[in-house]
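Hello again, I could really use a second opinion on something today. Take your time with it, there's no hurry, and the full record follows here:

___
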Amino acid sequence: MAGRRLFQDIADKIAAMIAEGAFPPGSRLPGERELAEKLGVSRVTVREAAIALQARGMVRIKTGSGIYITDRAVETVDDLPAVSAFELTEARALFESEAAALAAPIISDSDLAKLNALLNDMSHDDADAEQATASDREFHMTIAAASGNRAIIHVVNTLWRMRTELSEVREAHASICHHDGMTRQDEHGAIVKALEEHDAKGARLAMRQHFGRLLEAMLDANEQQELIELQRKAAESRERFLMSSRMT
């Protein structure tokens, strides 16, 4: 599992302050320098944390003006269920596959252009993890919105809140997505192609294949983690046996 980066901890600390009412919706966060001094980190770390919070929808960064708290920032992770990354991905596969099928016959040219632009953004090697996640979220939310079904839009938005706000889910995705850039890009491209052809069955299948591969990657990562843990325990047992043998 990928190690937790410092900016994520700082983002969580700022989110906690927002949840406690230190910064109400519509207000402006203190400047980078002040926050950096208060939290004992660099301004670069504060900037990365702000980008992470913007990806969660908690703040809005206005260039040249500052960082502002959004209305939805009062929604904290406390109202989200404690789910695993695997459970969440299973749910996303169900809802987002149907969202793609519903969107395919009626998706507009402007939405297709937006999806292609996002696809291009996600192909850049210089995009950091938070920017890539933000583009990924917008890609999937655009498809959900194109379905025209408000219930599905609400559900997919909530599922994405779990994806970005639950730390264990976030870290599980980070450990997988770090290695699957080109595969994920091809999968997203297949989804867009089916939508461009207004092919409902093809869009549903392309979305299912995307999440199916992601679920397999999660299972592989979990098996690898379990193997590492077994090897660690075996090494400890071996060391205890050798120490015991020396003492007899």
